[in-house]
Design goal:
single chain; alpha/beta; 3-stranded mixed beta sheet; 10 helices
């Protein structure tokens, strides 16, 4: 397992110390560390290894191998268990600062904003019903609304209460990560393109026209179900579609696959 430390993590750490937030920052990071270890532990129980841990300005990020190949319930549990754990710690130790920080951390991670846990949870659930690429887009649009409300909340809080540098930098950092939506979408696209087909998974049948473009068809595919397409009375399985896209690209229609 690799451990990476971003320069921005060192910069923010020194800045928080200089501003007098040493204790808060340490407790916050310790809580985040426990949170991330919960991700890794649940993934390990489901026989998935953590390949890399990245120390970022306001958190840790663990890369778990082949998580998309897990069933929807296992994936959802990996994403939702750590925030719930933070909430439990928050309730138990509410009278102490560590409890309040854990409570805030749990609530914060339940916002549907990338790259927070609840956004990944929603991505799995929504993608299960409408396709993984469509799921990412729906969650991103929802995240836009919540991101705007979060910034508004921080502005109002600054006027009513004392201005918090920690909250301000946290929101800026989250906004920066949120803008990496295109990277997330590309990752999902290529993961679907090269996914391992599991015929034991739920099968989903689509009735579509031969005029439908492959760009639209690939949005229908998902990690948690196997796709079968009926096109003008002919059956086309997802392996053939993915193989066609790998070799020819997306600028074709379903009828072009008949001659592939």
């Amino acid at each position: 397992m690799k451990v990476c430390i971003r320069l921005s993590f060192i910069f923010v750490s020194l800045l928080m110390i200089a501003l007098g937030y040493t204790g808060q920052f340490f407790i916050l990071y310790f809580s985040i560390f426990i949170h991330e270890m919960a991700h890794i532990l649940i993934a390990f129980i489901f026989k998935r290894k953590c390949e890399k841990i990245v120390f970022m300005p306001f958190g840790l990020y663990s890369e778990i191998a082949s998580i998309e190949e897990l069933g929807i319930f296992k994936k959802c549990f990996i994403f939702i268990f750590p925030p719930i754990l933070n909430l439990i710690f928050g309730v138990i130790f509410f009278k102490h600062q560590v409890g309040k920080i854990n409570l805030c951390l749990g609530i914060f991670n339940l916002l549907p904003i990338y790259p927070l846990d609840f956004a990944r949870f929603l991505e799995c659930v929504v993608g299960y019903f409408i396709g993984s690429i469509k799921g990412v887009r729906v969650v991103f649009k929802t995240g836009k609304i919540f991101m705007a409300f979060l910034f508004l909340f921080i502005i109002v809080e600054s006027f009513i209460f004392e201005f918090s540098f920690l909250s301000f930098f946290l929101c800026l950092y989250l906004y920066r990560e949120f803008l990496l939506y295109d990277v997330r979408l590309s990752y999902i696209f290529y993961s679907i393109l090269f996914k391992k087909n599991n015929r034991k998974s739920k099968k989903r049948v689509f009735f579509i026209s031969k005029e439908k473009s492959l760009k639209e068809v690939i949005k229908e595919l998902g990690f948690d179900f196997y796709s079968i397409f009926y096109v003008d009375g002919k059956i086309i399985c997802e392996e053939k579609i993915l193989e066609f896209i790998k070799k020819r690209g997306l600028n074709f229609k379903m009828e072009d696959i008949f001659f592939f």
